[in-house]
Specification:
Blueprint lengths: L1 E6 L4 E6 L5 E7 L4 H11 L3 E6 L5 H10 L1 E4 L9 E2 L9 H13 L5 E6 L2 E7 L4 E9 L1 H10 L20 H27 L4 E5 L3 H5 L7 E2 L3 H13 L3
Parallel strand pairs: 1-4, 4-5, 6-9, 7-10, 10-11
Antiparallel strand pairs: 1-2, 2-3, 7-8, 8-9
Helix pairs in contact: 3-7, 4-5
Length: about 240
Amino acid sequence: MDLVLDIGNTLQKAAVFTEDSQMVALLRQKEIGISDLEAVFDEFGIKRAIMSSVAGVSSNVADWLARNTNAVALTPECKLPIAVKYSTSETLGSDRIANAVGANALFPGQNVLSIMAGTCLVADFVNSKNEYLGGSISPGLNMRFSALQHFTARLPLVKPEKTDFLSGDSTKKSILSGVINGMVYEIEGFVGEYSKKYSGLKVILSGGDSEFFHNYIKKTIFAAQNPALLGLHKILLLNVPY
């Protein structure tokens, strides 16, 4: 069995995959420690591991992995199953690389836009030639609500809730309309423009807030919970032999 670690800004994930990229276990929590890894290793007999981090990881965890399995960190030096056409590849987040590889694995040889709705709203595009062309980054749902409260003198902090109106008749509803409808229009706008330019576009929506937005989006979107984890496993297969 193989272990994939995805250390994000808000959550840390550990997933167990079979050699043919079938996920058999998933752990999601604020911080994953050595005791968590020990339990996974005892249950599944992990032979290989890969770690992606955008938020930093405990050196104790990294050292423990290096001692106990054949492990690799996702870096720009890793071999990838797609060609990266990003002009500043040294600044490209490992989460975006993994997301793009996972999207390509789900729809190989097709134009695919993978949108992650989490701490940030991130879109990554891979074309039908299996080339990663980049995408977009903007503030995520909770970041937008927090920014309105933080950078103004009188606007309150509003929490996400169902919004089925266009014109807000109170400050709270105006904020809900602006943030939630704004993100929906942003997602649909990107999907529409990519669809005009790239035929047969496939669209994936994932991330912690994807379930919240799925019912709002009118475009046809494929819901995938963890394309980045799948992508990490595909990268592991290329870089660490048994």
